[in-house]
Automatic annotation (TrEMBL):
Transmembrane segments: none annotated. It catalyses: N-[(R)-4-phosphopantothenoyl]-L-cysteine + H(+) = (R)-4'-phosphopantetheine + CO2; (R)-4'-phosphopantothenate + L-cysteine + CTP = N-[(R)-4-phosphopantothenoyl]-L-cysteine + CMP + diphosphate + H(+). Residues 15-227 are annotated as: Phosphopantothenate--cysteine ligase. The chain holds residues 194 to 420 of 421 of the full protein. Pathway: Cofactor biosynthesis; coenzyme A biosynthesis; CoA from (R)-pantothenate: step 3/5; Cofactor biosynthesis; coenzyme A biosynthesis; CoA from (R)-pantothenate: step 2/5. It comes from Skermanella cutis. This is Coenzyme A biosynthesis bifunctional protein CoaBC.
Length: 227
């Protein structure tokens, strides 16, 4: 249910944001997950809402508080995240910031796996749906603007370009997570915004600043705010 929209350039525009990790169950007490705080995705959802957009935030489990003024959907697995995203359509812009687990266990055990006689359980994996690629697929329900993220440790821009083409999204925020970038464990983020063929290098920024700048770029693209 969209919340009352704040006045702002994105008033009347709808946005979908994914955030956090996904948890893929192994059995009732164990799961596979990515490391993700959800800070970046939550900050983007909050920044879009402050510009007046009607925002649905679909998030995996995080310790982040729900941002003010967004319609929150809490999910666990990648498949649940995809279903929640599809339920939120149509939107004008989708931003996929979640660290989605690439694989799930093909058949979750309904009972807790036990250490029996020193035998190791074999986990058969299956590939999860790609939410960004699915939302980017041409069709009536495709958001007008689809933005992905790419965290890379080397050849950051080259890998991000390849990812943008592979996923079919419009923009990619490429995040340099190499040890020399100081991203991990630090407060600043070195990102590059790829809009189709156009590359913009951003200075080191906090996740909140990255969110504000990205939200401003989205508003400029959708309504021409001149940001
Ligand atoms: N993504 C997604 N669904 C997935 C996997 C990734 O929506 N199942 C999105 C992420 O939210 C991010 C982008 O795709 O916006 C890139 O994720 P990344 O893990 O870097 O890409 P992958 O295609 O999974 O490639 P890699 O092998 O590098 O993990
Ligand atoms: Ca991945």
């Amino acid at each position: 249910i969209p919340k009352a929209e704040a006045p702002g350039p994105l008033r009347g525009w709808r946005a979908l944001v994914t955030s956090g990790p996904t948890h893929e169950p192994i059995d009732p007490v164990r799961y596979i997950a990515n490391r993700s705080s959800g800070k970046q995705g939550h900050a983007i959802a909050g920044a879009l809402a402050r510009l007046g957009a009607s925002v649905t935030l679909v998030s995996g489990p995080t310790r982040e508080p729900d941002p003010d003024g967004v319609a929150m959907v809490h999910v666990e697995s990648a498949r649940d995240m995809l279903a929640a995203c599809q339920d939120a359509l149509p939107v004008d812009v989708a931003v996929c910031a979640a660290a989605v687990a690439d694989w799930r266990v093909r058949a979750m055990s309904s009972q807790k796996l036990k250490k029996e006689g020193g035998q190791l359980p074999a986990l058969e994996l299956a590939e999860n749906p790609d939410i960004l690629a699915t939302l980017s697929r041409p069709g009536r329900m495709r958001p007008g603007l689809v933005v992905g993220f790419a965290a890379e440790t080397e050849k950051v821009v080259a890998h991000a370009r390849a990812k943008l083409a592979r996923k079919g999204c419009d923009w990619i925020v490429a995040n340099d997570v190499s040890p020399s970038s100081g991203t991990f464990g630090g407060t600043s983020n070195t990102v590059h915004l790829l809009r189709g063929d156009t590359l913009e290098d951003w200075p080191p920024l906090s996740k909140e600043e990255v969110a504000q700048r990205l939200a401003a770029a989205i508003a400029d693209h959708l309504v021409g705010t001149g940001a």
